[in-house]
Structures are given as C-alpha cells and as structure tokens.
Amino acid sequence: MALSDSLPILCLALAAEAAVGYPDRLYTAIGHPVTWIGRLIKGLDQGLNRDAWSFRERRMAGIVALLVLLTATGLTAWALSALLQPLGLIGILLLAILASSLIAQRSLHEHVAAVSKGLREDGIEGGRRAVSMIVGRNPQRLDEAGVSRAAIESLAENFSDGIVAPAFWLGFGGLPGAALYKAANTADSMIGHRTPRHEAFGWAAARFDDLVNLPASRLSALLIVAAAALHRGASPLNAWRAVRRDASHHRSPNAGWPEAAMAGALGLRLAGPRVYGDVRVEDHWMGNGRAEATADDIVRALALYRTACALLFGLAAGSALLAWIIGR
Question: Which pLDDT value is given to residue 303?
Fold first, then answer.
C-alpha cells in the first residue's frame, strides 16, 4: 500500500479511536482483535511448547509459532485490505475503522486516569486496585508514590507500544503493517517472559518485539519532549537530557526512551528497583528528579500524553499531505 493511501487511513484511525475508542458493547459482542490474536497464541503455546523438549527444541518451536502467528495475521489483514481498498472512500473509511481497533489512545488514558481518581477518592487501596489493571508488579508492595510512578511509567511505555508503534506501522504498511505489529506485541506480552515455561519458547517473540518497537520508542520520546515544550511546568530540556543520560540503561531497549522523557519532563524519577510478584527487579532510575510522585503528577503526565497524541496526529496529517503533494 502506497503512503498516499496508508497515511490518510492512519489519520482517520487516530481521530476515530480518540473520539470513541473501542465500544464496550462491541467488545462484549465479538471481542477485540487482540483477544482473537491472543487465542491463537495460546493455542500455539499449548500445542508447540512441550515440557519434554530440550531448550533448543523449544526455542525452535517458538520461532515456528511466531512465523505461524505472523503469517495468519498478515494474510488476514492483507485479504481485508485487498477487499476494501478498491471501494474508494467507503473502503478507506472501513479500513480506518478496522485499524482504529489496533490503537489504544482512549483506553490508555481512561485506565491511567482511574489510578489518579482511585488515589483521590479511596486512598492507597483505591490506587492499588486501579493500577493492578495496567501493571504486572505486586500492587500490595506499592505505597502512594509507587502507585503513582507505576501509572506514569505504564502511560509512557504504552504510549510507545500501544499508540505510536501501531500508528508507525499503519502509516508505512497499512492495515497489514499495524496488524503484524499488534500480533508481535501481543505475543511478547503473553509468552515473551524469562520464566521456566517461556524463556526458550518466547525468545523469538521477545526479540522480534524489541526490533519492531525500536523506531516508535525513539519517536515517542521526541513527541514527549516536544509536548513538554508546550506545557508550563514541564521541561523539554530536562526531558531531552534524561533521554540521553538514562534511556540506554533501562533493562528494555525501548521502554527507557519514553519513560526517561516523561520523567525528565515532569521532574520525576521513574523505573528503578521494583517487585513483580515476589521477584525484585533491579533497574536503573529514569530521570533524576523526585521519586515521591503523587496523584497530581499522574494528572500532569496525562496532560503531556494528550498533547503528545495531538502532535502524533499532526505529524501523520502533515506526512499525508506531503505524500499527496509528491504523488500528484
């Protein structure tokens, strides 16, 4: 799909998802593309990840599973594009609606805002309940500052892999590009863990997800830096300094970029040592500000996030206009 076709679809998808998200009634009726992808991943995990196999055999099985997943997802998305694209404007609108389900601007905002609301209305227990919906760490080990940092870290990281990355691949590859990315990202979230069951089988999924998120994580950091320049009380200079100083020290090759940018912009420290389940993870701090984050800082982070999303839309619209001018 040419950029002159895929970029307008991206703009429409971003606008539609920001306006209405993915309706609960639709989710109840038919599920969500991520849940469909998740069922396939679960089936591949159950069928190909055999306890009796050696580490090497399970790693090879994981590679096969990833190839099956990407092939099935890519062919389905390509067939939908081939069916709808010849329909002209109606086809573009339908493709944009389908693609909007692969972007999560509105739902991410709602989930993170719920943490701030929970802290304000129900104290630490309300914050813990809300943050448990978006992070994997043990919420009972978190105080108010820990809950607030966890929410802001999730906002920054998911801005990259839940919004900018699918938008990036949608812009360059149309619906198939976004769907393939979402399949890879969902596989990483389900099986890309260093656990006895998935360390070998999920290796390919984790490494591939790291690769396809490289451009979006860098772009996400730049968008947050730019957003900080538009907000009083936020510092684009400190955001940039934090990215340069800290991003490469994160245990993830991608998450550190938006997290460091958000931390620097808000004058916070994010990431650092934390507990997942009963396992303590030692990680480098992102940013050199205060670690005592609050519900007010979540609100500030959400304001930056909304501006960064608007800048992403502006970048997509400008790119679509440029592609149209070049293609004339």
Answer: 98
